[in-house]
Amino acid sequence: MHKQRLLGMNPSELREAALAASLPAFAGGQLAKWIYQRREGDFAKMTDISKAGREQLSQRYEVGIAAPLDVQQSSDGTRKYLFPVQGDAHNAVEAVMIPDEDRKTLCVSSQAGCKMGCRFCMTGRQGFHGNLTAADILSQFFAIEEAPSLTNAVFMGMGEPLDNWEEVKRAIEVLTAPWGLGWSPKRITLSTIGVLPMLKRFLDESRCHLAVSLHNPFPEERVEMMPVQKAWPLEEVLSLIRQYDFTGQRRVSFEYTVFSGWNDTARHADALVRLLRGLECRVNLIRFHRIPDFPYGSASEEKMADFRDRLVRGGVTATIRASRGEDIFAACGLLAGKHNL
After folding, report:
1. Per residue in 237-269, pLDDT tens?
2. CA distances from 238 to 70, 83, 132, 224, 253 (A)
3. Looking at the domain 70-328, which fold is it?
4. Which residues have a catalytic role annotated?
5. Residue 328 pLDDT more than 90?
């Protein structure tokens, strides 16, 4: 049986943990500082807590920072980490650290596998194996070599973050709270296919940036690749988003993976312009990375540039996202983790 993990707890919960270990309530604040600000995972090194108190803590709890099982490095400097999922020896998830000049962005996973079933995504094709806890999510931030120098985070790894919003929210609270890492919410972007009930909660309960997986402006075509179009139609997702202000510091962007012969025509670009008209946003065009048993390939560089230019002429800000870590299967849509470790 696993000990309860302190990673992911807020100060109030840490106070309760301290009291349960026969420590004074103020030890909860000490624990928060040691875990989140000093990033210490060993009770024995928390020297302003009594030795007896540390022994009580170690009997009842663990900090819960899980070390990666494996790390791979790409030729472009991208690093992919493999993490265990607490309580399940057969599951693992991947996180990707992407360096770019003075930025180091962590692409973090929120679930083992995914329920959404997008046909072009390796994670979606493996099925769903469970939600990550806040501790599982935060381990990806705390246990990697680059942890102290991370500048940004994107919840774009394995899983649909809004399908596990409660635990994702707890992790974001640790990242942004003054008692945690103290990050600005502007340093964090959450990507979703548009889980409507939770999307409203995310927009109301956080100030992080939003990225929406769009991929096709035509509902009858989008549903071919993204079954969730039936449950949460893109039109309803956009209707909700239009109720919020994205003209200030908070941003909304749309992810559009470009497939040769499926969604890369002038007809699609023009429909996308109409769909997003009047919304302050950006479209990120993503190169598709071919996966087994899938009928479509990548659009050519020329085709992607033409598509981008047509969006820009229509008044939509659009960029082609640089592909990173493809040689270690760390690029968009390729994360799959390992099973039966």
Report:
1. 999 999 999 988 899 999 999 999 999 999 999
2. 39, 34, 28, 19, 12
3. TIM Barrel (3.20.20)
4. 94, 332
5. no
